């Protein structure tokens, strides 16, 4: 193992986005990144707690940091919403450890988003080496959404208006990075179920921009973004009268594809917009 | 800082001015013209600062370069200004009067005294960099001048240490240099650059282990530049390039013996030959080349390549003797006896280490070196079917691949791992590709066989602890295996074979089997014997041997010349790598023959590059050292100005005072990532857009989009990028952006015609004189102003069009599409300036501005150190210029006792009387390097000049302006009694003063001179047509000769100067001026119309930063009253005014009866202004409606009454910015904020509502705006075009206004309504006409130039300060008053004023008194007296307008007489007549 983490999958990765969880685990295994699922982890409170009760929203996430603190390994997170909540809690615990931390001291561990880890120089070098099936000809739109970039002072985003992590990985995998300027626009976020018209408007704008830019698929690292974008295409297509059939990948799925990891196709089958025809067309599967 | 200086020591009469932008230049000129020595310190290579980068200036739309460049020239040639460019201040000692500043000067690598600025060097320089002057929108060369008009007019080279490739190369070949030359297609130059340090490029291009590539910065990004392959490409071109070794530098003739013809010996011989010696190489073998010949197989280094390289070396004069072993028979002593004076032993390492294995007696064991030697020399060699090669070096690879090519199966056995192989990775890769088998971590232990070798028994190894070489040592493990083997080649290392030397010599020279030398000089213990290469190092590399051969040649030269062998040779080299972001670009690989094909023969494996590929590959170079040290500039510079060994310098200067004017840097817009700067090509900064607009900019003023060079049709400006923004730490207003954005929009429309321009702003701050008029004109011309802060810019990734997202006032989100977006970036203080301030001990604010006080606006925390311009807060040009003059006054006030102490006063020789002498013209024609000479036939022009009437002598110079040419011209003037001079060269704008100075020094009147501009106006514009350009040059010379023949000597007019100054107006500006004059040592008369001093100060209680104005005013009055140098007259009126600069006379009525006449040399007008009275908003009808200053008095003087005020409304812009007064009164917003905050301070619950149009809290005042919002002051905007506030009286005062944010009317009932009424000038019409000074429509006096002469009137000797000029704050008034004093001091400081001889003269007999000249003169000089016009030569500016207008031809302008003009024309037409 070149490095060891406590892994916090979060609820989405247990259910709707299990392919994200599986691909994270597979890619980390291939990259020799050690991760042990945090024993006894609980929901971070994302999507509702912070709108209801500030102390609840901190404490739910803080509990998980307390767990990791005892293990002494930084928390690796895939879900952007969990990442955001954990970062909020981490800041709060550092600012007022007596109030928020079980140990009454600032946590010894940090919160690491998977895309930041993958972009570390040594890991990036390894990704380049292991990418034996480069994704040549695939025009990939990088999409970050809101939560890993904002608010920059909480999530410590170095370049919140123009994040680079997915861009760098996409390039390393040999795909065509397709630039656009909406990489941090909102997809509709947690209105996924409650206010779908907002999701259709915001995600629809994203799809139009992505198509215009020449992308043939979107890659993200947020389960909520992936769900919104993957699930609403039919409705958007009908509403706007445009053809829409654009696969939305998790970044780790693309890495796994380039690494030639066996299970990739199984995960891809879970997507609502089936990416396999596109991948077949590009000789990627 | 406590110095032991006595108090009576006279201060140093010099001032150090830091920063040579417009502020620093103005301060320097004012000081230098007032009798002080100035050190002008500038970190850039040229003066001019930011203003030089601007296109136009608001509000007059003057071209910035046009108005600044005369100042550049004036600073550049001022005898009292010492210009120190490339220089920064790093330390300060001492205190006011006696500062010592430590300066650090960067190396320029060009001698500015020798450089003529011709630019030939930049033409040949291969290295291109982003041009900082163009904000990176164009490129410049590594040798460059900041901009074409740069002063000093000299080039300099940018270096960033030595490139890592050059440092890594043992021979220090300028790799970056030849790569750069290759990228430019200069192949011959590139090859000769290599040969300067390495005579074997074809060899090294094939077999070098290329440490240059290993250390290439690109290796860290993608892959190193293919330096080795580029070298091979160049060397392979040699037969087509017609190059020869350079001629020997000398002819010393001494013979030097070189033993061995390997790379070391060949190199030593080559460089010795070039130095002028006679080297003879003695080679034992039948062919030359040493290990290159015998050790390297043909498929890597074809023998004919080596032969050609040896031939080239021989052609330099090297004698080569093969089959000539040295040692036993022919000893060194014998050679010495034959006349050889020195020796180089380059005998290499040709002996092999043996294996010592059991079973070697079976035969079949070969030495690697011997095997290769025999193969390479085509001797018969037999090997078996199964060859095993032992070893992991290049010899092992060569032996293996050679065996393979002889038809064997080959296995390489190496005891360490693959990563540890000393062989080059590409060699190993090629061997593998050729299907050679490798056994790593394996060592042979026994040869097995049956009378013949059959198999090899091997043992497995594993890696243990690191050994002395740092590599992990192989440790045997208990694991054996056998391989088929009938031939075993041992390639486990070589060593020098020194057996050839007699034993006693060997004992002296060698130890442990190697020759021992000094590591720097390569001298052995035996005098005159030097050595290098493998003989010294053991088996090493080709380039090491070359390096040592070259160094040994230098040592032999020094030895034979009796010089110190070591001196200056242990140079530490530093390599710094570029910091900027590096774009990835994969290396282009040269082609190789297919493995299956190439193993069949010994033909070369690597196939080299073609030309396109090699240029593309060379262009990948990152120019780590910036300058590539290709030395083409050295060859090209005819003046010999280039010094590549220049070093940075330290220096200390003594100065009595210091002025800091380091200027600003623009905000880095990448910090506001949402606008996409740096990502979207068509988002540019305002300064970039200035360059795009500029005629001298990257697109010659053609406005185009960076992405596709298309003309934009829609351009938007986003204001406040990095201003008024706490998120990036810049919460102040940058003061200038609103205006420059409006100007850029107006000018863009002028350039483009049809274009939509939109400015997105938060508040339009057009607070300066004439600014609102400018905005109104901009609006009328179609510029749209949208009050909305843009939130984000998106880009269409296909078209690169830009979408601005913003919200209108009703809160609706909108998106607009543009072709280009300009970010109006704010002004900040750079880290370097902060560091400099720290070095000087000057305190800064949190934003990095110098800390000052509103009543001492330019004094820093260190007495004697003053500040001017943006370093004291963001501001525009006129305020900077005024502050610069004021800082000059501040600094010189400290030093007035030493005025004139350090000023240069050059003694001129007595002038030769040329009256009545026959005309004897000297003509000097300039080649200007190749600038003129390459287009015009200069010798022909010179010969032609000799034939012209009156020409006595003609001469040509490479650079007529160089110092030695000046001396020659002076000699020729004396020798040939020349009395008229013509120089045919460049522009009189830059060079006329230089040549006129030369004339003066030779005793000739400087007006007996003319220039023919055969460069800018001839060779530069007629490059393609040599014949016609030469003909035109002849015409121009003929015209100049015709003109100069008629030139008459002119003498400067000296007028005495009365050192007294008259100051009109006893308010803040007038009193400040009088006191400053006194401090400078000048007497003054202060004239006040009313019975009291104090003026408008009487109505002000506090400054915005809380200083007590009343107390300050009383102090000023007391100081004025008690100052013996000031005569203050109250109740005094000007009744008459006559005279000219230096000698004015003014009649003053004091009281009702007394009249006094005052003689004075200069005048400062400070008649002031005050608050407008109004009849709007019930003012005068309702006591609850008062003016802002009445409110201020209430707050200060009647606190009890003020405490009862619970609610206040303020209405801004009462009487300002309306149909009667279009201007902004500038001070009212800040005054309103000040008073609102004061009330809130007294009673935080008091309610304050400010009804405003734009809050113009410009500059650092923005912080008070912020403070007021935090304190709960409510700001409600009103738009007078929609509805003005309505005020109703009665029991409750009512104020009603439409709130555009709420989109409805609001109504409030304040206790008090405070009106911010306009600032208007005092009644001054009569005074204006008495002094003949113009006023604008609003009654404010008009300065000489709105940008660059803000406190001067256009009449010499008259100056302006305070509200009489326009509305302004207390600190601004104080600065202006002091500025006026500094300007006046340039006149008052001297006993007499010298006036230019080029003035108009009226012939009274011809004058018809038509008044045309009186009306035409822009300076109001001519007047009528005794029936004719009179032009006072002391006042005339020599512009010549009256001459051209005079219908009676009664006026002539000296030096530009009609006769002269006619003569020029006649001479021009003569060619056609002939």
Stretches of chain A where pLDDT is under 50 for at least 5 consecutive residues are none
Report the biggest beta sheet of chain B as strand number plus sense, adding barrel if it closes: 5 strands, parallel
Q: What's the helix count of chain B?
A: 44
% residues in beta strands of chain B: 15-25%
Output the structural class of chain A. Answer: alpha/beta
**What oligomeric arrangement do these chains adopt?**
heterodimer
- End-to-end separation of chain A: 29 Å
Give, in spatial order, the strands making up the sheet with the most strands of chain B: 5-2-1-30-41
Which class do the helix and strand fractions of chain B yield?
A: alpha/beta
DSSP strand count of chain A: 8
What gross morphology of chain B would you assign? globular
CA-CA gap between termini of chain B? 77 Å
Give the DSSP E fraction of chain A (strand runs of 2 or more residues): 5-15%
Return Rg of chain A in Å: 18 Å
- Give unreliable regions of chain B as ranges: 1-7
Secondary structure layout:
The complex is a heterodimer of chains A (285) and B (1474).
Chain A (H helix, E strand, L loop, with lengths): L2 E6 L1 H5 L3 H13 L2 E5 L11 H4 L1 H18 L3 E3 L2 H16 L1 H4 L10 E3 H5 L2 H10 L8 E4 L9 H4 L9 H8 L3 E2 L18 H18 L3 E4 L2 H9 L1 H8 L7 E3 H9 L4 H5 L7 H6 L4
Parallel strand pairs in A: 1-2, 1-3, 3-4, 5-6, 5-7, 7-8
Helix pairs in contact in A: 2-14, 4-5, 11-13
Chain B lengths: L13 E5 L3 H11 L4 E5 L14 E2 L4 E2 H14 L3 E4 L2 E7 L5 E7 L14 H5 L3 E3 L8 E3 L1 E2 L11 E2 L6 H5 L6 H9 L3 H9 L5 H7 L3 H4 L12 H10 L1 H4 L13 E5 L3 H13 L2 E5 L8 H4 L8 H12 L4 E3 L10 H6 L2 E6 L5 E2 L12 E3 H9 L9 E5 L3 H12 L3 E5 L11 H9 L3 E3 L2 E8 L3 E14 L5 E13 L2 E4 L3 E2 L7 H7 E2 L2 E2 L13 E3 L2 H4 L4 H20 L33 H4 L12 H8 L13 H5 L12 E7 L1 E4 L4 E2 L16 E3 H8 L20 E8 L15 H16 L3 E6 L9 H10 L3 E4 L4 E4 L6 E6 L5 E6 L1 E6 L1 E2 L2 H10 L24 E3 L9 H18 L26 E6 L11 H9 L4 E7 L5 H14 L3 E6 L2 H14 L7 E5 L1 H5 L6 H20 L7 E4 L4 E4 ...
Helix pairs in contact in B: 1-2, 1-28, 5-6, 5-9, 5-22, 7-9, 9-22, 11-20, 15-16, 24-25, 25-26, 28-41, 29-33, 30-31, 33-44, 34-35, 34-41, 36-38, 38-39
